[in-house]
Amino acid sequence: MSRRSFCLLAAPALRGAECSSVQLIEPEGEGRRWWPRWRGPSGQGVVEDGAYPDVWSDAKHVRWKVEVPGRGHSSPIVWRDRIFLTTAEDGPRRSVLCFQRRDGKLLWRTDAPAAPGEKLYWKNSYASGTPVTDGERVYAYFGSGGVMAVDFEGRAVWHRSFGMVTLYHGSGGSPLLYRDRVVVYQDQREGSYIAALHRATGAVIWKTPRQEKVGWGTPVAVRACGRDQVIVSSQDRVTAYDPADGRLVWWARGNTFETTPTPVVGHGFIFCSSGRAGPTLAIRPGGAGDVTDTHIAWQSPRGSPFIPSPLVYGPHLYLINDMSAIATCLDARTGKAVWQGRLGEAQREGFSSSPIGVNGKVFFTNDQGETFVLAAGNEFRLLHVNRFGEKVLASPALVEGVWYWRTEKHLYAIAS
Questions:
Q1: For the segment 15-42, what is each residue's pLDDT rounded down to a tens digit?
Q2: Which 8-state DSSP code applies to residue 5?
Q3: pTM score of the predicted model
Q4: CATH homologous superfamily for 9-414?
Q5: What are the structural domain ranges in the chain?
Q6: Strand, coil or helix: 335
Q7: What is the spatial distance between Cα 413 and Cα 416, in angstroms, rounded to a whole number?
Q8: What strand order describes the sheet that includes 410-414?
Q9: Cα separation of 24 and 223, whole Å?
Q10: Are residues 104 and 92 in contact, defined by beta-carbon separation less than 8 angstroms?
Q11: Do residues 359 and 49 lie in contact, with contact meaning Cβ atoms separated by under 8 Å?
């Protein structure tokens, strides 16, 4: 594939950007070994190299394959010999599932308290948010079904409801664990908020109103300029909150109307992709109040994803425009285009799964279950395409040489 023209908008000279240190806060201790949350221990789809196969199908390299009851687009998480998923029926039943990792046996299913089903889009479900675990409990967010904590034996520990979600297309974000709290945000037509709940009891520690009304993303916790912040990328702007009390710290304008991708960090920046092929922003950490004019280092006006999140892997930032099936590789420091190339047949909203970087390769998976394996680096080089033969909207979990994939109806373990 040829290099395509790419217009870059650079920011004016930065004022007050005395700090360029930023890192995503990863789980501590044993959590680093497993896949305890959305996009893994790194929080952004980057995996330590290991014996992960890069070729598979619905038959090749399949260690086991089991049916998943119900319907959901959430991704699997892994802790020791347990795999956790959320699922839902076409009604008020929303559940946390636990599978045995060595053979895929379903060990238990725990239902959240019944709640009305919000309006859904065809790509959404009542179980789109990926759960998170600290090794003691599993925490799941079900939109109108609230936030639920269950222990590893499937016993419900607590439940917290914030009422009916009024956002068209329903909810889609995943919860975030930060120290002793579970952080969730929900943008909607009325009563948008970000809240922190005590992970042991579900008690509300703080709840901050938000002005945004549309968004399906997931918050991330970063350590920037010596202080911790919770970052939310949503309608029209990116916002940072103090996780201690929920206070709004800074914001940067530039997002479009509908924003889903989860922010990623690297090379001194927070990267936020926005809307239907909208801009990707590279934001320097630090500052207070409106930092739009001082802390946006660069932005790309097109080529960004609508649903999948970006990937920082090595010196590059990888994006997939799911409206046109065009993959883009940018220099993460400057935003300059390195290459662009088409992945399969162009299809509107054709990718949902977020990319993975491992073993010097980048893996993009479309909704038809095709995984395009690219060599990471300065040239567009498609190595091969893997096919499941059924739809895939979830992102995989990778642990100890095994890929765990949720397809439309199954859970797969893929290993050499």
A1: 444 566 899 999 989 999 999 999 999 9
A2: -
A3: 0.94
A4: YVTN repeat-like/Quinoprotein amine dehydrogenase (2.130.10.10)
A5: 9-414
A6: coil
A7: 10
A8: 62-67, 410-414, 402-406, 397-399
A9: 6
A10: no
A11: yes
